[in-house]
């Protein structure tokens, strides 16, 4: 088994693949299959931790060929072009961008901890690892907004953006998005990828403003018009409902289930693997020292409970833990146990393992 991203592989719920470098063709293929770069990893994110809660997400893209700007968007492009100068080129980190990034994230997004922009984008990898570009907006030589994006052969993936809060009235955040789409049109690209959209999170709704968006429907493994998105496409909601139901059933039978969260490195494989699931219900199987554990998740695509057995040395997983534990897992010697449609069948298996 090899590490790294296989662009043709589509994970069942969540996956994080390390990819220090990638070809333009592989970039296009990975985006097509629902992946998106985050730091030095490519991720399929249908659940994302935002602030103090987990949110169900879908990935978005915009087909460029038949896209036309709305009248109000053309007006914004024209109005801002009369005042601002725009430059596009390879990404270069400097103090001016860093200062704008830090101010934007601490004031507009109110991040508690803001890492350096270059580290946030690359996690220590050189900028030449990807075809990463920047779009900079200047007001009489002063940098007032910028965005950073990856390009492939026929795609553009928008990574980050920031603007000077003093220029909020010019809608510079949305303006850079429109400029990126305009750049796609000029380059003859097929698709524009603005990243993930969390459910019920207004600060991300700007990604839908251009219109014509599609979302990656994991169950059908296809891109579907966003207007056709239904409640059933927010897969993490179903996962949490199913794990919550199972937890209640286990508690009613005297079995303690502990919530756990992980972001492991996944491998391209059609076999079930624990690293393709980042939210679990954990059941201790060894009463003494509590090292042998059963990890239970819900596969929202096949609609089955998936069970894995492994060992975790985290002291937070004591049997007498009084409340759910939110933490990162370090699972070793893991193995797939089986899959079940009904919570009752999971209970039967656990009772047998506890004998």
Describe the structure.
With 355 residues, this protein is of the alpha+beta class. It folds into two domains: 15-230, 3-Layer(aba) Sandwich (Aminopeptidase), CATH 3.40.630; 235-354, no CATH class. The protein is 24% helix and 32% strand. Strand 4 and strand 5 (53-63) form a beta hairpin. Helix 6 (235-252) crosses helix 7 (343-354). The longest helix has 18 residues, at 235-252. The radius of gyration is 22 Å and the shape is elongated. Residues 315-328 have low confidence and may be disordered.
CATH third-tier fold name of the largest domain: Aminopeptidase
Number of helices: 7
Classify the beta-strand content into a percent band. Answer: 25-35%
The tally of domains stands at: 2
Residue-averaged pLDDT, rounded?
86
Radius of gyration, taken over Cα atoms and rounded to an integer in Å: 22 Å
Q: Which structural class best describes the helix and strand composition?
A: alpha+beta
Shape: elongated
Give me the secondary-structure topology.
Layout: E1 15-18, H1 24-32, E2 36-38, E3 41-44, E4 47-50, E5 53-63, H2 71-81, E6 85-90, H3 95-107, H4 117-122, E7 132-139, E8 142-151, E9 155-163, H5 172-187, E10 191-198, E11 214-217, E12 222-225, H6 235-252, E13 258-261, E14 279-284, E15 292-299, E16 304-312, E17 331-340, H7 343-354
Parallel strand pairs: 9-10
Antiparallel strand pairs: 1-3, 2-3, 4-5, 5-10, 5-11, 6-7, 7-8, 8-9, 11-12, 13-14, 14-15, 15-16, 16-17
Helix pairs in contact: 6-7
Short description:
By secondary structure, this protein is an alpha+beta fold. Helices cover 24% and strands 32% of the residues. Strands 4, 5, 6, 7, 8, 9, 10, 11 and 12 form a nine-stranded mixed β-sheet that branches.
């Amino acid at each position: 088994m090899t590490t790294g991203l296989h662009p043709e592989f589509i994970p069942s719920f969540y996956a994080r693949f390390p990819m220090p470098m990638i070809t333009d063709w592989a970039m296009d293929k990975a985006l097509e299959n629902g992946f998106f770069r985050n730091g030095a990893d490519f991720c399929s994110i249908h659940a994302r931790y935002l602030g103090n809660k987990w949110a169900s997400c879908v990935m978005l893209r915009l087909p460029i060929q038949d896209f036309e700007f709305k009248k109000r968007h053309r007006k914004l492009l024209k109005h801002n072009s009369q005042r601002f100068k725009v430059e596009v080129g390879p990404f270069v980190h400097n103090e001016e961008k860093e200062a704008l990034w830090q101010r934007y994230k601490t004031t507009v997004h109110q991040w508690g901890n803001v890492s350096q922009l270059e580290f946030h984008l690359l996690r220590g990898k050189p900028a030449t690892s990807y075809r990463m570009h920047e779009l900079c907006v200047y007001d009489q030589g002063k940098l007032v907004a910028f965005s950073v994006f990856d390009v492939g052969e026929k795609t553009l993936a928008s990574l980050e953006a920031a603007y000077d809060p003093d220029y909020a009235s010019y809608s510079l955040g949305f303006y850079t998005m429109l400029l990126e789409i305009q750049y796609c049109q000029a380059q003859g690209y097929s698709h524009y990828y603005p990243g993930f959209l969390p459910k019920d999170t207004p600060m991300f709704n700007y990604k839908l403003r251009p219109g014509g968006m599609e979302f990656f429907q994991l169950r059908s493994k296809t891109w579907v018009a966003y207007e056709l998105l239904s409640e059933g496409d927010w897969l993490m909601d179903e996962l949490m409902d199913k794990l919550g139901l199972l937890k209640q059933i286990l508690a009613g039978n005297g079995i303690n289930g502990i919530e756990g969260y992980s972001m492991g490195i996944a491998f391209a494989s059609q076999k079930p693997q624990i690293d393709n699931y980042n939210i679990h219900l954990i059941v201790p199987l060894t009463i003494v020292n509590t090292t042998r554990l059963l990890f239970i998740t819900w596969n929202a695509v096949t609609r089955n409970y998936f069970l894995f057995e492994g060992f975790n040395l985290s002291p937070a997983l004591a049997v007498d833990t009084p409340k759910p534990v939110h933490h990162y897992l370090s699972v070793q010697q893991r193995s797939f146990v089986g899959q079940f449609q009904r919570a009752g069948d999971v209970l039967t298996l656990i009772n047998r393992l506890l004998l």
